[in-house]
């Protein structure tokens, strides 16, 4: 068993837990990444040894994989910028390849851009619980029998993680990932880190600022998570946001009735969608290699509503599902094939037990199924499609208690928070609340746009100027800023 023999503990606080800085004498050995895109871009990769349990820093070690795109001008280099794509549980080695095109040349000149597969994910001692499904987030279904069937599955998912991963999985947490980031900083010989995080990655980034405020340099948090509502209430917040998004999309689709034949009014389109769920409850809809049931179909809808630019593609997917429900032989389009393949484990990377490890290990969840059932029933009137998803129990209800309490972020560390008002995953109010909790931050609002993850993913000159100015000069806007769609 490998051990971290090169750690020099610099600060220990609270019941013997390591919460301060660790420096590493370990040598970081950069080499080719073995990934076509990263290697073509000239990136290098390395592994950094970190303690599995920071309370036992000389105990078992695991490795965290990182990538590096060097600053383009060593004379202007400021330091390193770590990153996280969200998830929770998203691999991030290649994230900066996607994002750097929207970074101005002088920002690219200043930073070594560091991608990272967080602990338990991708190349970083990955969690694999041998699940029979891809994702623990599912809809409860239409009736009590469906709810109980799903609850049994969620209990089975938690049991498999406990059986296959043992104590290891209890240390796959955001708090420990933030500690890993600080150890990476030390191993690279840097006094501070800058950071760019999306979605769940904003929680990770804000947790880092809470644990290591004096090591935090320029912090950008895009599509932000409110630490007080993560993870359970964060999911509940998705219900109303996605119902509104469904109405917006349905009105759009009604205007395209000649092409998609989903209904001439928004109400008719919504009625068709709700009827598809009822049909899937009576008998799963066969489409291609998949049988889509009432637990997964709302997740397909959730995926399709994330970005307004996907309206047409999503309408095509719903048309295909409606045709399949009518008994036609249908091969799913690329978007539908992708989302169903993730839920039904068609792809090797589809199993999301790493997400469960983080969400369930970060904070305790309610245990009593009756409380979930009552919340689901109360939600059905106003949230007929997404209430049974957003209020449903998941594997966390059957998980072992967290090793440490959740991190509640409240600090004056400067940061730039970017949030779209139409975000269906991390709702707008969560960005507002994180802005209040981080008193040194500024909020950039992308007004009246339905999208999730903005900088580098949703082109917007106003947002890009604000982010690039801050990363280049360290200058936050003088006041909160509202951007409109280009």
UniProtKB/TrEMBL annotation:
<feature type="domain" description="AB hydrolase-1">
    <location>
        <begin position="88"/>
        <end position="254"/>
    </location>
</feature>
<feature type="signal peptide">
    <location>
        <begin position="1"/>
        <end position="24"/>
    </location>
</feature>
<keyword id="KW-0732">Signal</keyword>
<dbReference type="InterPro" id="IPR013595">
    <property type="entry name" value="Pept_S33_TAP-like_C"/>
</dbReference>
<keyword id="KW-0378">Hydrolase</keyword>
<feature type="domain" description="Peptidase S33 tripeptidyl aminopeptidase-like C-terminal">
    <location>
        <begin position="384"/>
        <end position="483"/>
    </location>
</feature>
<protein>
    <submittedName>
        <fullName>Pimeloyl-ACP methyl ester carboxylesterase</fullName>
    </submittedName>
</protein>
<dbReference type="InterPro" id="IPR029058">
    <property type="entry name" value="AB_hydrolase_fold"/>
</dbReference>
<dbReference type="GO" id="GO:0016787">
    <property type="term" value="F:hydrolase activity"/>
</dbReference>
<dbReference type="InterPro" id="IPR051601">
    <property type="entry name" value="Serine_prot/Carboxylest_S33"/>
</dbReference>
<dbReference type="Pfam" id="PF08386">
    <property type="entry name" value="Abhydrolase_4"/>
</dbReference>
<comment type="similarity">
    <text>Belongs to the peptidase S33 family.</text>
</comment>
<dbReference type="Pfam" id="PF00561">
    <property type="entry name" value="Abhydrolase_1"/>
</dbReference>
<dbReference type="InterPro" id="IPR000073">
    <property type="entry name" value="AB_hydrolase_1"/>
</dbReference>
